[in-house]
From TrEMBL:
Signal peptide: 1-22
Species of provenance: Acinetobacter albensis
Protein name: Solute-binding protein
KW Signal (keyword) present: yes
A Pfam family the protein falls into: AdeT1_2
């Protein structure tokens, strides 16, 4: 009798384990274009790979990033894919890759992301907020953000004084930096910041080439506008999970997948940046580039002191910058 009870108990436990493993994991995916967007398509490839790591993924498309975040907070999703600017609340280390001037080229960004997702940094991927555990299970690049202007007469930061600049309301760094250059910050959301630019409500906006065609930025810069051909920051997207809802070791396997796919992602980004017509690109002199790099550095250090950016990531980004450009003026300076 005891043997029968033991056998039945074992079978029930095995059955429970099988059920748990086979249960779908809901993942909210923010993409302005929904299922037709690049981010959602990448998530589909990731979900297919995740089957090999013991998870059955159910992707939930969300075209409103705030809704995706709220669904995650409410437990409607077990994971969420969204921009690092909003995901910074869950992990400041990873969320600080998007720091002003932190990764001024795709090559530097690739080094920084690869380092961040390395197994040695696994502890930094974990966070505990109000008793809830979170883990960064991936970082995807969306490309450098460039400043677009409706009028090419705004051909310097100095001429931005008094101009209206659309900023994302939940990113304090943007608001502070816009105020530092004397421009007027117009609080917006990721769902409408480019629309405000296109319809003339604001004079300037920052966005990656990734958004140029989908959000129709060409409407805002035609016929008299342009784009400063100078990257202000690197835009990334973070994949945040509740680790207790996924199989053991899932997070690192997922991070390894994102690293493996970085070359593919950056090839796409380079292609999108090259597709913006040359007639709209406003190139800066070497002197102006250095001046703006210094301005961004001062802003970045200020944001770090304010607690917006993570000091450890600032060190990582500086090492990445100086490994690519050893002659850069900042490489001999301290402070980061």
């Amino acid at each position: 009798m005891k043997k029968m009870i033991f056998a039945l108990t074992a079978l029930s436990v095995m059955g429970l384990a099988t059920t748990t493993q086979a249960a779908k994991v809901d993942v909210c995916v923010f993409d302005l274009l929904g299922k037709s967007g690049e981010s959602y398509q990448m998530a589909q490839e990731w979900a297919l790979a995740a089957k090999g790591w013991g998870a059955d993924i159910n992707l939930v498309p969300r075209q409103d990033e705030a809704v995706a975040d709220n669904d995650f907070k409410a437990g409607k999703c077990d994971a969420v894919f969204m921009t690092a600017m909003r995901a910074r609340q869950y992990n400041k280390f990873v969320g600080s890759i998007d720091a002003l001037g932190g990764a001024p080229s795709n090559a530097i960004a690739q080094r920084a992301i690869t380092f961040a997702l390395d197994k040695r940094n696994a502890p930094k991927m974990m966070s505990n907020l109000s008793g809830k555990k979170y883990e960064v299970a991936g970082i995807a690049p969306l490309g450098s953000a460039f400043i677009f202007v409706r009028d090419k007469k705004i051909d310097s930061i100095e001429k931005a004084a008094g101009k209206k600049f659309a900023v994302l309301g939940y990113d304090d760094a943007q608001k502070i930096m816009v105020q530092r250059v004397g421009a007027q910050a117009v609080i917006s959301d990721i769902s409408n910041f480019v629309a405000k630019f296109n319809n003339g409500q604001v004079d300037m906006v920052g966005a990656p080439a990734y958004a140029y065609k989908p959000l129709e930025i060409y409407k805002g810069i035609s016929p008299n506008g342009g784009m400063f051909n100078f990257p202000v920051l690197q835009v990334t997207a973070d994949f945040i999970i509740r680790p207790d809802q996924f199989p053991a070791g899932f997070g690192q396997k997922s991070r390894d997948w994102f690293v493996k796919n970085l070359p593919k992602s950056f090839n796409m980004i380079n292609r999108l940046e090259s597709s913006i017509p040359a007639k709209f690109k406003m190139n800066l002199t070497a002197e102006d580039k250095t001046k703006y790099q210094k301005m961004l550095r001062e802003g970045r250090m200020d944001m770090t002191k304010r607690g917006i950016y993570d000091p450890a990531m600032m060190s990582v980004l500086k090492k990445a910058r100086c490994s690519v450009d050893k002659a850069n003026f900042e490489c001999s300076l301290g402070g980061e």
